[in-house]
Amino acid sequence: MDYDLVVRGGLVVDGTGAPGYRGDVAVAGERIVEMGKVAGSGRTELDADGLVVAPGFVDGHTHMDAQVFWDELGSSSCWQGVTTAVMGNCGYTLAPVRADQRRLVSINIERAEDIPAAALAEGVPWTWSTFAEYLDAVDALPKGINYAGSIGHSALRIRAMGERAFDSVATEDDMVVMERELSDALRAGAMGLSTSRNKGHTTSDDRPVASRAASWDELTRLISLIGRESSGNFQMGGDEGATIDEHLRRLQQLAISTGVPVVNNTGDPNAIPLFDETVTRGGQLWILTHCRGFSVLQSFRSRLSFDFLPGSEWTHVRSRPLEEQRTLLQDPDVRARLVHAAHHGTYKPISSADPFEPDFEKIFTMSDAYRPTLSVAEEARRRGADPVEIMIDTALADDFNTIFVQSFWDTSARAFYAQENEDKFATLLRNPNTAMTFTDAGAHQGQVSDCSIQTHLLAYWVRERQLFTLEEAVQMITQQPAKVWHLRDRGVLAPGYAADITVFDPATVAPEIPRVVHDVPGGASRLEQRAVGYQATIVNGQVFTSGGQPTEARAGRLLRSGKA
After folding, report:
1. How far lies 432's CA from each of 183, 236, 276, 285, 310, in Å?
2. Please, how many CA atoms are within 13 Å of residue 480, restricted to the half-sphere of its CB?
3. What single string gives the DSSP state of each residue in 309-362?
4. Is 491 left (phi over 0), alpha (psi -120 to 50) or beta?
5. Residue 405: exposed, middle, or buried by beta-carbon count in 10 A (0-12, 13-18, 19+)?
6. Inter-residue contact 262 to 228 (CB < 8 Å)
7. How many CB atoms lie within 10 A of CB 319?
8. What is the pLDDT of residues 81-126, one digit of tens each?
């Protein structure tokens, strides 16, 4: 028998956690049709000897809602073995929206998700009013990878309430509009509803984003509708004014009372008992996890914490072209003023997406993309210098290409890799109620987000530390996120499943150090992160990347809830 494609002789790790085995995967059209020892030949044959053949990775928490319109590839996710990205998280979507509300939807997204206003204006066609029409627009695009999307609570409120969405409680008439739009979106294939009550999420005109003005009763009513009309889920980021325990207890009650699967961003190992308890009481409560400390990336070619020292010497220096900055940074008097301002100035970041006030014990030079390195403070002590000067000198020596990583963790980011913390996170990642998928890809363009966490998992936790088997790790980034978003024919290699396949070298797979690229509509730059060790990704039966480079194939599809 002849097939369209046969991936031959690799270590098949099917995504279920079952032991890997040497075998072949045969594809006809968009589906896997045979596995094991395949006797027939393929029109295209891929030699996977010495490589792992896994399901395409599922990037479950992204903000690609706008980028999908100007980036056919889906970078940086596509470079990390990802074949499916779920959009519409944290309440941020581009629909539903009336023509006279586009500005409100844009300002709601610009700052909180760090997507430039010019990119939204120039790169997004805005040809829709309903969420169903938005999905149709995405469906019609040429796409290298698959996309699915939830509807955002902020957009729902703006559609129903206009300007009042940012500061008012919804009326009964408002609720009727929101329920109608949500119901229509679910019928059109929305994966569910998302919201944010994160106090750091603000609009570009300095207001709380629209979803933060909603009452808990409003949320409960909308989520109850999901439970009545669909199998969709509810995703939430943050809970302003509530402790972590109060927040999680609310979510537990919501999951049990409505029957709706609840997805939470709190990747805290201490929350495991509550999540397990929720399941025993008949609810579904998922934790989205990371496999490294949350962080922001900064560089002289993008943004620095020091850029948020208004009126300081840094404002003067950073307003100049890079070559002029080079000269100024080498001037001893200028440098002394920069160091003083960095230590004694008042930092005023505009949003939670910005590099925040520096803690030099938590800032690391990214000389290695996945192994821990010395902090800037540690390096300064080693050299007997000031940490600000270390950052300046390092950047000058590397033509400003150096990337600095600042951790969000309360202790040194390197402490994340201490044995005690590693053991805690290994327990979290192994829990059946977690999914290792929280990249924010498509947002925070100046800091890359954490788009390479799938690759980091394979490079650091599997190869370097050997705390997980390949089978365990692959399941975390394939079957688990596919379960969360009910992607019933993705995340596993089996006959009848979609032929989304990632082929990688377990001995070399690793993230690369990010680089600045200039490809955002409106002229803005962004950080892009690629990877090594991926031999191929196959999307719906077609080879999309080969040897780390894209092919001409654009077989990605829009995946709708309840449909294959």
Report:
1. 30, 19, 9, 11, 47
2. 27
3. -TTSHHHHHHTS-HHHHHHHHT-HHHHHHHHHHHHHS----SSTTS--S--TTS
4. left
5. buried
6. no
7. 10
8. 999 999 999 999 999 999 999 999 999 999 888 888 899 999 999 9
